[in-house]
Amino acid sequence: MPNCSLLADAVRAAASGDGSAVLVFGEAGIGKSSLVEAVRAQLPAEGRMLVGYCDDLATARTLGPFRDLVGSVGTELSRAITDGGDRDQVLAALRAELTWAAHPTVLVIEDVHWADDATLDALRYLIRRIADLPAVLILTYRDDEPNREHPLPGLLGQASRSDRVRHLPLRRLSQGAVRQLSAGSSVDADDLFALTSGNPFFVHELLASAQEERVPRTIVDAVLARVRQLDSSVQDVLEQLAVVPSALEPWLFDALVPDGVPGRSAALAAAEQRGLLTVSTRRISFRHELTRRAIEGSLPSARLMALNQRVLAALVNRDGCDAARLVHHAAQAGDVDAIVRYGPAAARDAARAGAHREAVAHFGLVLEHADQFATDERAGLFEQYAIECYTIGAAERAADAQRQAVELNRSQGDVRTLGSSLRWLSRMQWWAGNREDAEQVGREAVEVLEKAGDARLLALALSNQSQLYMLAHQAPESISSGERAAALARQVSDPAIISHALTNIGVSQWYLGDPAGQRTLDEALRVALDAGDVEDACRAYVCIAWNLLDWFRLGEAERYLTASIQLAGETEFLAFLSYMHMEQARLEFCRGSWDAAVRLAELYLDANLPVRCPALTVLGRVRVRRGQPEAARLLGSAWELAVKASELQRTGPAAVARAEAAWLHGDRAGVRAIATPVYQEAERLGDQVYQAELGYWLIKAGQRVQLAGDHPYAVLAAGRWREAATAFQAAGCPYEHAMALAEGPDPEQLLTALAMLDELGARPA
Q1: CB 34 within 8 A of CB 41
Q2: d(CA 713, CA 720)
Q3: Quick one: pLDDT band at residue 197, thresholds 50, 70, 90?
Q4: Is the dihedral of CA 28, 30, 31, 36 positive or negative?
Q5: 355 and 63 in contact (C-beta within 8 Å)?
Q6: Cβ atoms of residues 221 and 201 within 8 Å
Q7: How far apart are CA 574 and CA 560, in angstroms?
Q8: CB under 8 Å, gap of 24 or more: what pairs does 518-527 form?
Q9: For the chain, which terminus, N or C, has the lower number of CB atoms within 10 Å?
Q10: φ, ψ dihedrals at 745, nearest 5°
């Protein structure tokens, strides 16, 4: 079989220290697990196979498949997983576990479409390093399961860029294969194929449940028909087990079906013999998840709740039980007391391990019963929920929850807690695109914390305020607040706040044309890197690269971007990685690599405003320059977001793009209408970049504008086209180089410009 051969080759290579990953995918029932099980026969004598399972819980277990490995792996990894799931400890222990020379490991993670965020982080980490490990990582998943919001496609996209990852799609059986399988029965093969479309599990189930030539019309009917042929005692056992989405440990089976139950052993044996269960010394599970779902889905609600209550009672009586499992069965049983008791711990465990989507789900469930908690505890839960929502990018939900936390904290009279929650709300309001609300709340945070006597919290609030001023291009105010924040942060020796404040100051200095700006940003970056503060290091990197791109210093921008993407990728800091990819898209756009720019920008059309707005702008500008449809719609959407953000860093690029589009359509009045208000704002704020770019388009549209400075567009607008052309050529910007040449009177230069534009596909220009 070619599929088994591919896996066998991967195992042999791993034995030589040449690791790889294999993605096994297809629809439910296609045979993924059966194929993986066949790998055991390919293992050398010194090899081992580890299998972990992602379960269809309402909220996934944090590091669920790796918890399954406890007892089969070394103490370092077992301890890292069971001691609270600190992400860095788990990742280091996981790598050490798989670095076992001369003992190749096949690590199988089943049903990754149900994985939690922390598990996906760990898999992302392993895929980046798998080439240097004596291991094969096999991931199985349903390719029809994840939607656009699910993080799995992001992991698969990263995996696809590696030459150490193999893809193994599984296909349905052909009509001839179905005919061959049904040859020994009286079932009509063509009817069977029409019902199953060649899905192997469906074919097997329908053949097994057929009565003479009559075949059940659905897979659920087929499964239930087989179950109803069994004794009632066997059916009772199957119904109890069906409410447990994960495999059952022997102790849990014993608790749910104790020795005193009549026919206990016979029931288990009968279910195994009929192909419904698989039984081993370590676990009991349904042979296929579709079987479990069919049985569970047939149960009346009252019985479903009662069976889940029995599972919950068994789990509660077991020391060290995973809180996520407790909460799942508490929710299914409708046990509010248990949700309130175990839900907060499950949420915090998930957050600590980096499983932020799961933390959001747990906190959300708990807060459905918010009235069960005291006011201070309720405020804390809302804030933790808000922070987790903020972390996964659910900006509106984060701001709504944090508003409730703030109002609850107002009634408590603790100024430190109130000031801290106001600072968080300010940040979340900005991320949700509500700048005015963010500024108002940010000011209140500073006012409250001025009275609190806590230098660190006040430094955080002042740096937040400095950042808001910086984002609004209010440079002097940003520098003033930032310097106060940095001074307080130095008093309390907090490098993260020092770096954050210095970044705000450096960007603001750059806006004012102060050459100290880049030096200040480099200092912010150094402080963060020396302290191991990845978040603020990434932020400094992003700000440096953005400003270098604004000035067409592409070579320098690329050096910072390369280092930043490596740092964010290695540490799995995905929030900043998306922003860095947008900067990479800007870089590719400036270099005329428009297809590459489009590929990057299209990844972020559903991102939050700070990333989505530049993504739309880049896509719109490419379409404008190529004369493609949809340009106006994309730029219109970008402009709407920019206006909502009310920041020049958003309105400036969107206005430049729309002004260029109007000029290419011969609409000079449109150029003036679009560019003038944003140009005037840039002039008021002293911003050289957007004065230069918008001023250039205004001059092209016949409006008199006085420009100064050495920005390449200011040079071009001043009529020094040769100088501008040289600058754009040195920067590696072919479109701008051609447009500068086109400003001159020399026919040879015009022909050169035309050839360059032809090569780019820039037909409108």
Answers
A1: no
A2: 10
A3: confident
A4: negative
A5: yes
A6: no
A7: 17
A8: 518/544, 518/547, 521/547, 524/498, 524/499, 524/500, 525/499, 527/495, 527/498, 527/499, 527/502
A9: N
A10: -90, -10
Going by C-alpha positions, the residue among 282, 295, 125 that lies closest to residue 220 is 295
Within a 10 A sphere around the Cβ of 449, how many other Cβ atoms?
25
The angle at the Cα of 122, spanning 88 to 570, to the nearest 5 degrees, equals 65
| DSSP alpha helix (H) spans, 130-218 | 152-160, 175-181, 189-196, 200-209
Strand, helix or coil at 220?
helix
Collapse the DSSP code of 222 into the 3-class scheme (helix H, G, I; strand E, B; otherwise coil) and give the result. helix
Distance of CA 753 to the CA centre of its chain: 42
How far is the CA of 338 from the CAs of 56, 367, 371, in angstroms?
A: 20, 13, 15
- Amino acid found at 19: G
* Cβ–Cβ < 8 Å for 613, 641: yes
Residue length of the chain: 765
- Residue 63 sits at φ, ψ, to 5 deg, of 55, 35
Region of 31 (left: φ > 0; alpha: ψ -120 to 50; beta: rest) is: left
658, containing H or E segment: helix 648-664
Q: Among 564, 630, 627, which Cα is nearest to 602's?
A: 630
Place of tokens 């889940």: 308
Q: What is the 3-state secondary structure (H, E, C) of 70-130?
A: CCCCCHHHHHHHHCCCCHHHHHHHHHHHHCCCCCCEEEEEECHHHCCHHHHHHHHHHHHHH
From the CA atom positions of the chain, what is the Rg in Å?
A: 31
In whole angstroms, give the CA distance from residue 211 to residue 629: 59
Residue 716 is which amino acid?
A: L
Specify the residue for token string 């409410």: 243
Q: Are 760 and 735 in contact (CB under 8 A)?
A: yes
Neighbours of 493 (CB within 10 A): 9
Residue 345 identity (one-letter amino acid): A
Sign, CA torsion 420/422/428/433: negative
Tokens read off for 404: 């409730």
- Measured CA to CA, the distance from residue 461 to residue 236 in angstroms comes to 60
Backbone angles phi and psi of 24, in degrees to 5: -105, 115
Mean pLDDT: which of 103-117, 174-188, 614-628 is highest? 614-628
Query: Which residue, chain included where needed, has tokens 């014993």?
Result: 254
The answer to whether the beta carbons of residues 71 and 40 sit under 8 Å apart is: no
- Helices 323-333 and 301-316: crossing angle in degrees, nearest 10, is 150
Name the β-bridge partners of 52. Answer: 109
Residue 453: left if φ>0, alpha if ψ -120 to 50, beta else—which one? left
CA distance 14 to 498: 46
The number of CA neighbours under 13 Å toward the Cβ of 514 is 16
* Percentage above 70 pLDDT, the chain: 97
Of 323, 252, 326, 329, residue with least CA distance to 284: 252
Three-point CA angle 142, 144, 150, nearest 5°: 85
**pLDDT tens figures, 338-366:** 999 999 999 999 998 888 889 999 999 99
Tokens 């069960």 belong to 372
pLDDT in tens, 531-583: 999 989 999 999 999 999 999 999 999 999 999 999 987 776 777 888 999 99
Q: How many Å apart are CA 464 and CA 732, to the nearest integer?
A: 36
Asked if residue 364 lies in contact with residue 385, where contact means CB atoms within 8 angstroms, the answer is yes
Distance from the Cα of residue 127 to its chain's centroid: 16
Question: Within its chain, how far is the Cα of 380 from the centroid?
Answer: 25
Please list, in sequence order, all residues whose beta carbon lies within 8 angstroms of the beta carbon of residue 654, skipping any fewer than 6 positions away.
Answer: 613, 617, 635, 638, 639, 641, 642
Helix (H, G, I), strand (E, B) or coil at 276: coil
199 closest CA partner among 173, 217, 168: 173
Q: How far apart are CA 166 and CA 183, in angstroms?
A: 35
pLDDT above 90: residue 275: no
